[in-house]
Request: fold
Amino acid sequence: MLNVKKEFGHFQAVDHVTLNIEPNEFFTLLGPSGCGKTTLLRMMAGFETPTSGEILLDKRSIAGLLPNGRPINTVFQNYALFPHMTVAENIGFGLKMLGRRRNEIVPVVEEMLRLVRLEGAGERPVTKLSGGQQQRVALARALAPRPKVLLLDEPLSALDLKLRQSMQIELKRLQAETGITFVFVTHDQEEALTMSDRIAVMSKGRVLQVGSARDIYEHPADRFVAGFIGETNFLEGTIVEAKGRVARVRLKSGADVAAAMPEGLPTSGDVTIVVRPEHLQIAADKDAALCATVETVVYFGTDTHVHLRLKDGSPVIVRQQNRRDGTAPPDVGTEVGLSIPDGVAQVLKD
Amino acid sequence: MADVAAIRSPDIKKQSGFAFIAGSCIAVLYLPMLVVIAYSFNSANNLGAKWHGFTSNWYNVVLANTEFYDSTILSLIVAAAATLISTVLATAAALGTTRGRPWRGQGSAYLAITTPLVVPEIVTGISLLSLFAFLSTVTGIDLGIWKLILAHSAFCIPFAYLPIRARLEGMDTTLDNAAADLYATPWKTFRYVTMPLLVPGISSGAALAFIVSFDDFTITQLIAGPGETTLPLYIWGRIRRTLTPELNAMCTLLLLISLAFIVLSFILSHRRRA
Amino acid sequence: MAEIKDMQRLDDARRRFLTLPAVLFILAFAALPLLVVLAYSFMKPATYGGVEWQFSTEAYVGFLFQKDIFDDSLTFSSEYLLIFARTFLFGIATTVICLLIGFPTAYHMATRPPQTRNWWVLLITIPFWSNLLVRTIAVMFIIRDEGLINTILLSLGLVDQPVTMIFTDFAILLGLFYSFLPFMILPIYASLEKLDFRLVEASYDLYASRFQVLTRIIIPLTWPGIATGCLLVFIPSFGAYVTPLLLGGGRHLMIGDLIALQFGSSRNWPLGSAFSMILMAFVMLALFFQIRKNAGGVSHG
Reply:
């Protein structure tokens, strides 16, 4: 349904981005602030004109249309609710502008209020609502005209943690119930992972990787993606042997590790491998090839982060789950061995 | 909590003596006006400070005074016309000089609009007198009370412009984006979003324009022709005659009319912005 | 690229078009008249008011010199110069007094809790916009020989003759101070209200005394408001007309009255125009001064 194809040189804010967003998909643009994700969103909405390239919706170009001509609605970061209107007037605004009659608008507004669980709040002024409620009104307002695409510009960033988590689930539910394509912009990787069908990771105006949450977390395309999504250990080494999709990498500290080998990478030379902290294990055997000194131990409730330093000076983090019967974390200053199970490490494109 | 803190540590904002000065300030500003109002109820028929007893009779005298009545009507007409003209022009100008990238020459336009604020009234007065004199010698046309209306409109524009502009600058432009996103055409965006939000600013500006026009004495005195006596001019003329508390009653009424508009403007501009 | 530029140009044109009427109106009824006055100042007076269309620098010469009625010789005359100097001094004195009283008041207002603060602002706003003529009449009532003060003093037996206050320089200064005090308070209040009082805490934390906090932190940071306040007091008191007329009794002239006189009974429009132009030059100078000081204040902050 939506086929966005763009080539831009818009102050390099968005640099030759080509994206294909499927119908009924929860699609997330994820990246640090200033990566161009909001600019991309604003171009879809029509607030920004692409320097070059085109935006296709249902195979038709919408680049020449003003925002009010596009069947696309936006949930703004600060909600942008009209302060002089009631909740119902806000929600019905789009339909009113489309020239619908009052008796058509009222039932839709009622339905939307039900959808966002604000039944009976229709006559309240929006300025009297809490942040979470304003958020829901903004959603209802954007959904009421039944757009083909709903754009969400960091809509949860102003909410506190608890509210944010419940709204994440709510958004996912709304998307499933309405079947509308959601394009969600965020800099919060956790938000992206929990809600999205697919995620596009952006940096410096470019899309680095598009894939499902699992894809991106477990098989990051490059160093930036690996570092941006979740916590990660980077280890330097040299490929000793490459066999199909598996390579044996000799780390600087001397240990050999079997690492997954993505396609299209050179099969020899210096590489960086990436290992997630929860995949590393602290071994009882101090004489293991990977030997490290414990520097800091941080207790997090569900798990404990152990910060270690390898012999060659590189830092490593290990995340241990806290179980009731679990072994106590090592003491600061002691030397421990580290083991990397097969299949958890991956060679990275630099 | 706050009280406990106040007892334990001295108020860091305090500067000694400032509260006393501020209190005296209010006293000094209001005392003379209150004296004028109080003596409008003095039953003496001269303006001495001796209190002869309470009467509201001077207000009957004022209200029966046709000259007072005529000059008040003229003042209201001039002020209403000047308010209308200046507010319409100021609203358009405020919309043209806010929101969006400044255009070339916008700085100069701003300077031009605020000129009347920095030119002393006496200079504005004699310069308008010269202009109208020049016009009537060249064309032979005397504009009558339109002289007053045009002059008042000109110096009221910045007073109307500034509150409207302030309101526009405080307004979130994403609201316009939101309206456009919800299928509103630029005109509908203006009609349903910008304009309703701007109304308090416009009303506040209009109220100020009205006060400034209604109260003007210096400029009006210089350019008004015979028979074009506004209320301040009439009061001025009365100072030169025998002074009775009737003058106080007139001053009180003039103050009350201004006060109504000041409070109106104040409430409109201080209403909590969303 | 072309498309964006076109849209921008369209928007610029639209906004220019919206601004134009107000600008033209002001040019016609505020700027153009000033040019007429400038032109008049270089002409000769007509006998019954107005001007004769003849170039002359007589008016400016007349500012400093007096023409002998019999032999047309010029002798230096300080009469007008003294009135200008007096006016200038009145303007400066009014500004200084208003600042000394106005700053503490504005400071007191800005340090009240928000709800009380609004009441204070309203209390200052009312006289700010109240009729200047009526307020001047009010001062007159108080300080007249038969006024409130003298009546009280006489009845208490403190004096046996009314103390002459009206029609003196003191009366004019009092009137100017009373008229323009709110013009000083409100701009200073506006910048004090925006002041981040955590900076005050920080400077106390770094061992500044109350006085040092005031002079090193608060005043430099609120300088734009102070400068605006000074300008708003200086310009109208320098060009004051009603106050000296009512309270100075026409004996203690200021420039404003001198100008009005030339356009009135003296029927010397070119001389009045020349005075106006000199007055405007002072105003421009004050404006320039303020803009420069303001720029300095910003670099301080």
Remarks:
- The CA atoms of residues 238 and 270 of chain A lie 4 Å apart.
- Residues 161-178 of chain A form the longest helix (18 residues).
- The longest strand of chain A covers residues 233-243.
